[in-house]
Amino acid sequence: MNTYIDNINQSIAPQKALIVKHPLYAQIQTLEHVQIFMQHHVYAVWDFMSLLKSLQQNLTCTTTPWLPKGSAETRFLINEIVVGEESDVDMHGIRKSHFEMYLDAMEQAGADTTLIHRLIASVRNGMAVETALEALPLPVSVRKFVQFTFTQIAENKPHVLSAIFTFGREDLIPDMFMALVNDLNQRFPKKIAAFKYYLDRHIEVDGDHHSHLALQMTAELCGNDESKWEEAAQASMEALRLRNNLWTGVLEEITQMPI
Question: Mapping DSSP to helix (H, G, I), strand (E, B) and coil, where does residue 30 land?
Answer without folding.
Answer: coil
